[in-house]
Amino acid sequence: MSGIIVFVLVGLVAGWLAGVLVKGGGFGIIGDIIVGILGAVIGGFLFGFLGIGANGLLGAIIVATVGALVLIFILRLIRRG
């Protein structure tokens, strides 16, 4: 149970950070959590593909934030086209 709570909190922080870095603000609590969790999946895949390991809570936040940034970038490309 506590693992799920940590996962959601990491998603929230990562989604908020990605929102701040990309557009100057978050996406709301639910939006930040969704972007952060999807970002964690994308970031985990990318970091694993590149052979980069990230440990601990800070590593999880960094991986999820990078993944969330990639997700936002892709969504903006799709929206334009």
UniProtKB/TrEMBL annotation:
Its main location: membrane. The keyword Nuclease does not apply. Keywords: Cell membrane, Membrane, Transmembrane, Transmembrane helix. InterPro entries: Transgly_assoc. It is found in: Cell membrane. It is a multi-pass membrane protein. It comes from the Bacteria. The keyword Membrane applies. Pfam families: Transgly_assoc. One of its GO terms (cellular component) is plasma membrane. Belongs to the UPF0410 family. PANTHER family: UPF0410 PROTEIN YMGE. This is Transglycosylase associated protein.
